Amino acid sequence: MYKYLFLLPLLFGTVSLAAQTPEYGGYVKYAASTPGTITVISNGFGKKMRESGKDANAGAFYAVLFRGIADSRYQLPLVSDEAGKKNDPIVTGLLTGGYGSFVIEDILVSQEAQTRKVDGSKGILTVHKITIDYDALRKYLEQNGVIRKFGY
Fold it and tell me: Is residue 75 part of a domain?
């Protein structure tokens, strides 16, 4: 029994590290696109409206960067190496608020007070219709060395 006690700090340290990593897993769905832009429906959750809006935007950008948007011309993600580029300062800067210059339009579609089933926290669930300047985002990532230019 005592020989396993040294594993407890390691276990709790791992759990606390996992709890500190931001979660970008909201619902993101394709709405429309024009050449160079994509419009998605994204939801966010936060204690206040502003937090919820930021969560919706970060979720939309995370989906475009690392997942791709199903049923659109942008099905492939911009960044193919999620594990290697997720902690890149350029990417983390984008996901923590640097996305503003790439958002063409952000329309609040709906809002409702809700309690999260996962952890029981109370807050506001908002649904946003977000139009992203895809070409400018791709060019920005190319210029900062996060992705390579197509064909090189």
Answer: yes
Residue-wise pLDDT for 36-93, tens only, equals 999 999 999 999 999 999 999 999 999 999 999 999 999 999 998 888 888 899 999 9
> Which residues, in sequence order, are bridge partners of residue 41?
29, 129
Domain count for the chain = 1
Mean pLDDT of 98-116: 93
Tell me the Ramachandran region of residue 120: left when phi exceeds 0, alpha when psi lies from -120 to 50, beta otherwise: left
- Residue 35 domain-assigned (yes or no): yes
Whether 12 is in a domain gets the answer no
88: which DSSP letter?
-
Where do the H-state alpha helices sit in 96-133? none
* DSSP-derived pairing of the beta strands 122-133 and 103-115: antiparallel
How many Å apart are CA 132 and CA 121, to the nearest integer? 30
Other residues' Cβ atoms within 10 Å of the Cβ of residue 61: 25
- Residue from 83, 92, 99, 107 nearest 137 by CA: 99
The domain in which residue 80 lies consists of 23-143
The pLDDT of residue 23: 61
Question: In angstroms, rounded to a whole number, what is the distance separating the alpha carbons of residues 103 and 64?
Answer: 12
